[in-house]
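Fold this sequence, please.
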Amino acid sequence: MKRKARFIKQLFLIGALFLPLGAIAANNNPLAPYESFLEPEDDIIITEKTETITYSRNSSGVSANLSVKTKYMNRRFGSNCNFQIYYNEEDRKIENIKGENLVWDFSSNLNNDNIFFDGLNVCNGNIKLIEVGDKASFQYDLKFKDVIYLASVVFAESRFIGKFTLTVEVPAWLDMDIKEFNFNGNVITDKKETNKKTIYTFTMNNVRPIKNEKHKEPSLFIYPNLLFVYKSATLSNGQNITLFNTAQDQYKWYDKLMKQTIENTDSLCSETKKITANCKDKYEKIATIYQWVQKNIRYIAFENGIAGFKPQNASKVLDNKYGDCKGMANLLRSMLRCEGIDSRMVWIGTNDLPYNYSTPSLAVDNHAICAAILGKDTIFLDATCEYAALKEYPSSIAGRPVMLEDQGKCILTHVPANRPKDNLDSTFISMKLTDKGVEGVHKRILRGEDKILFLYDFKDDFTDIVKKLHNQGYEGLPTDDNQVTLSGISSADKEVVIEYPFAMESPITKANNKYYVSMDIINRLISMNIETEKRKTNLYFDYKAVDSYSSELVIPNGYKVTHIPANLSIDKDKYKFEVKYTQKGGKIIYTRSITIKEQTILQKDLDEWNKDIEQLKSTYMETVVLEK
């Protein structure tokens, strides 16, 4: 029996020698469970992250505690990473910090001379790991003075997470809803009820990191996240309080903060009268005040106190000549009221938020603007967008739901949505052949978002125009700034017009008494093929738009047209490509139009998108042929 046992043991050892090396490595590799989900650039990963939310009460209100524990592991030799935890001392504090194999310190924008005080404090963590498989850990508590500040949780961060577990312990005395976004079957949910509390557990495995992909949607539209709606509570003294049961409750909280602003209206109105002295009617006063605030008040993010929801006094913003969105909106509101114009504070969530007021929560809003009301006309004013004209709404707020101040209650409405044609980039080029290539006139008209972006690049400095246009991709530019005409460069203007004498070599090739002419020198979207094999997200454009281009070529004497490329027409639900050639008299006329009808193209439609882009690209490669 002993000889037989020894023989079997020897066979086992010999067999082990011939096991695949990968199998042995997998058995000894603590990273093996995650490798199939990782990308080459993933170095230090999070093997496990747990977050636990608990609530407590006293006789004055409800508070919350978020306890976070994170375990890290090194994937390759000599890696390091940093992380930040943000808090402020007024409404949330960081406590009970512990860590292994890492260091942390604290910083504040209070110590940064280049940043206006925003009340933001940062716990900075730094991890340095040497060997593959080395581990580190970090844990802390975030204590929220008022429960409404703990508004949401996202199931992702900048690093891969092997297992993410969130536990929410809801006591019986707290009435709240938990709203799920983008779960799509990827998050396991569990609910256990007792007499004293309900425990919700959310678990997600192999969570891919938040990474940049070409033209991806905002992260909250992609990654699983939860929104907490705190409706009411029974305090320790038995008192029942309403939190954010409805949007009106949320507005009452905002309105209470607004009433804490105390204005010096005499000096404010005196300054306003000077600004509007030459205005003929209320519309002109609105436009003038709006433009003055855009140009004279510097926008700097300001998140000090009460989670950044309390506006600064308008008179203080005016005196300081800087403010955040709330302060600038409050200044506009106050100045307009000095002129007898009905003006209101407006709370809004920008287009990177997926929420609306059906879920009243502080996470719904991240911005504030102003509204001026004349009769039935409501004009929204976002002074942080320096180059937007009156009734010209940047993509960040266009179409977004808003909460409009209305004395003791609020009005829920929305900013007007933009149509594709509201964001226009229109180019016209006239061309005639020369010994050096082509020459003519280049004229470009920009409206909406394209106009705003163009003016942001210049920042009111219209020196070195040719250099700046070159940096923006303009072709065939002259050498002298004086040869370029710019009009509509005020934020009050609806469109910018750029015009200059045009000359280039590249659009034509000459061979054997033939000219081969490319009629499109811009080739919009030519590089917009989307790699789909590894892509995880939809294709997303920042705004709906129309890009139109036309060029005309004078047919030189002694030449005839021997080839005109075929036209192209692709009309889909979310985009449209059109290319057309015509010969009229002594000219070839080329027109091309690209319309982005909707901002999001689903991942399942990207193969079709790529095929259409290939057709557009092939059309760009075609040339008009002129023969002597």
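Residues 1-26, 110-117 have pLDDT under 50 and may be disordered. The first helix runs from residue 2 to 17.
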